[in-house]
Specification:
Blueprint: E1 5-12, H1 16-28, E2 35-38, H2 82-85, E3 89-91, E4 96-100, E5 105-108, E6 113-121, E7 125-127, E8 143-144, H3 149-161, E9 166-170, H4 174-185, E10 189-194, H5 206-218, E11 222-225, E12 229-234, E13 240-245, E14 250-252, E15 255-258, E16 262-264, E17 275-276, E18 279-281, E19 293-295, E20 300-304, E21 309-312, H6 316-334, E22 347-352, E23 355-361, E24 366-372, E25 381-388, E26 391-398, H7 402-414, H8 421-427, H9 429-434
Parallel strand pairs: 1-2, 1-6, 2-3, 6-19, 8-15, 9-10, 9-15, 10-11, 18-20
Antiparallel strand pairs: 4-5, 5-6, 7-16, 12-13, 13-14, 17-18, 20-21, 22-23, 23-26, 24-25, 25-26
Helix pairs in contact: 1-6
Bound molecules: flavin-adenine dinucleotide.
Flavin-adenine dinucleotide binds at residues 12-18, 38-41, 48-49, 51-52, 95-96, 122-125, 146-148, 175, 265, 268, 297-298, 314-317, 319, 348-350.
């Protein structure tokens, strides 16, 4: 049996949060051999959102090392060799299968033991699979999910192999919308299926969704709403052939892509650390109830100061910022200092075709639509404000300039009062620009 490898700091998980944490460690000063990142993936941390976008483009698709962190936030790219240069150990293709937080040790699938003084949990999310619900035939070949670069490679191969074929996209969230667009760009015939009355129902209003659904329809994407996939048939090679819908319809498919949500990967730590709202509960410094264990990114349920409640956020901007906050807090604590509480303004975005939207704040309360949301407009530009207790608390904008996007971010942060809702609708973006 081999000896445990010991580190002062271990980050378990090698995704977005891990990469941004590593950069912050390097900034704050870390000695050679103090920090290790242990990742199940075979590659250094990268900007995961690229996988459903430029990674699948028909022409000059994005490939590693082009989108390693921290390019997504406009920072310097941390190439795989950056880690050893900084004395950071990048332990790849290594899945942790057991964590003993009391003993401060982790065990890998290959049986290696790693010990730490301080642990940062950055295991992210895993996709929800149709096989989890026992959907008939859901284990057929060419039914894809998308979380890691390996998944994207398999999907890319299938797109090339099934030239001009048919795809069914299950799910109407941002993964479903982005993948449908990129499949269409690859000249695949696309049908989207989702049970809700409109796409992205957790964020979009009916008016917002109507624009995107109309735009997708104009691009030739078929949308089937109000039903779900209940089974798949396959050909003699075991490849998916048909998708059976609950409403009785049957769709032909060479490729199926499923985007029905994710769940935080917390199973390793069950019963060892406090949880809340499906994630690992932390304070404003991403410290858990154990003083030597932190949790960042998708797995963290943290105090969202602006709204006075605990939230879990599965978006890239938060994964970056929470990672930086945790490392700053860890380093400050070593010097007997503190850092300011995390004060996050929720920010989500998506891009597909020539479209690009941003959302800031909270999508609660009444809504006001402004601008041109006609799908066939040559230059559609529109937005929505969410108003709660007489204040604007959230703002969405399609096709904003950087200045306009900053303006809606500011509105969501400042929460200005609204005297007259009709007036707000008329003013539209200029309301935000005045704040
Ligand atoms: P991840 O980046 O998922 O990293 C987790 C890492 O931990 C992975 O490397 C995983 O392999 C590893 N791991 C897990 N368990 C173990 C284990 N037991 N042992 C070792 N390693 C382990 N957000 C947006 O805001 N905008 C977008 O446009 C957007 N697009 C996205 C597109 C796709 C295809 C996906 C999948 C996500 C997208 N997101 C987007 C969400 C965003 O990528 C995540 O919120 C972000 O990656 C979370 O960072 P994280 O570090 O917490 O987790």
């Amino acid at each position: 049996t081999s000896m445990a490898k010991t580190f002062k700091y271990i980050i378990v998980g090698g995704g977005v949060a891990a990469g941004y944490a590593a950069r912050e460690f390097a900034k704050q000063g870390v000695k050679p051999g103090e920090l290790a990142i242990i990742s199940k993936e075979a590659v250094a941390p990268y900007e995961r959102p690229a996988l459903s976008k430029a990674y699948l483009f028909p022409e000059s698709p994005a490939r590693l090392p082009g989108f390693h962190v921290c390019v997504g936030s406009g920072g310097e790219r941390l190439l795989p060799e950056w880690y050893p240069e900084k004395g950071i150990e990048l332990i790849l293709s290594t899945e942790i299968v057991k964590a003993d937080l009391a003993a401060k040790s982790l065990i890998s699938a290959a049986g290696e033991t790693f010990s730490y003084e301080t642990l940062i949990i950055a295991t992210g999310s895993t996709v929800i699979r149709l096989t989890d619900f026992g959907v008939e035939g859901a284990d057929a070949k060419n039914i894809f999910y998308l979380r890691e670069v390996d998944d994207a490679d398999k999907l890319y191969e299938a797109i090339k192999a099934k030239k001009n074929g048919k795809a069914v996209v299950v799910g109407g969230g941002y993964i479903g919308l982005e993948l449908s667009a990129v499949l269409k760009l690859n000249n695949i015939d696309v049908t989207m299926v989702y049970p809700e009355p409109w796409c992205m129902p957790r964020l979009f209003t009916a008016d917002i969704a109507a624009f995107y659904e109309g735009y997708y329809a104009n691009k030739g994407i078929n949308i089937i709403k109000g039903t779900v996939a209940v089974g798949f048939t396959s050909n003699s090679d075991g490849e998916v052939k048909e998708v059976k819908l609950k409403d009785g319809r049957v769709l032909e498919a060479d490729i199926v892509v499923v985007g029905v949500g994710g769940r935080p990967q917390t199973a390793l730590f069950k019963g060892q650390v406090e949880e809340d709202k499906g994630g690992i509960k932390t304070d404003s410094f991403f410290k858990t109830n154990l003083s030597d264990v932190y949790a960042v990114g998708d797995v963290a349920t943290f105090p969202l100061k602006l709204y006075g409640e605990l939230r879990r956020v599965e978006h890239v901007d938060h994964s970056r910022k929470s990672a930086e906050q945790a490392v700053k807090a860890i380093k400050a604590a070593e010097d007997g200092k503190t850092v300011e509480e995390y004060d996050y303004l929720p920010y989500f975005y998506s891009r597909a075709f020539d479209l690009s939207w941003q959302f800031y704040g909270d999508n609660v309360g009444d809504t006001v639509l402004f601008g041109d949301n006609e799908p066939a407009s040559p230059k559609p530009k529109f937005g929505t404000y969410w108003i709660k207790d007489g204040k604007v608390v959230g703002a969405f904008l399609e096709n904003g300039t950087p200045e306009e996007n900053s303006a809606i971010a500011k509105v969501a942060r400042v929460q200005p009062p609204v005297a007259d809702v009709d007036q707000l609708a008329k003013e539209g973006l200029s309301f935000a620009s005045k704040i």
